[in-house]
From TrEMBL:
Top-level taxon of origin: Bacteria
Membrane-spanning ranges: none
Name by which UniProt lists this protein: Sporulation protein YlmC with PRC-barrel domain
Pfam families in the cross-refs: PRC
Domain PRC-barrel: 22-84
Amino acid sequence: METPDTGMLIRLSDTDETVANAAEDIRDRDVKDKDGADLGKVSDLLVDETEHKVRFIEVASGGFLGIGREKTFIPVDAITAITSGEVLIVQTCSHITGAPLYDPSLVRERDTYGSILEYYGYVPYWAPGYRYPDFPNYRH
């Protein structure tokens, strides 16, 4: 049975919480597509308020000294590997470029995440039968 709050996300940086093991905090790591192209850096983690699981990484790219940076959300389901300095994603840069636009005013709107998950080909994490990725079991 779904609770009313299931699926609502908040940026980890907007909470008093932190990642339990600092070595597993992927913020500020480089993000690479399946071909090794640079996509930017993990700027934040979007966490499910109910289950306290990371559902999306917020990736910032471009800009100078943080000004003019573009951001996108990528589902954690798209992560294929995590190293000490990189997060590797299964999609290509061109696919990620075509993702729904980032709108900070919609960060807490579950329908926004549904459309992003659909774009990437994943079922919503609040849907029956969803299985959370086996992190960090595939670490390099």
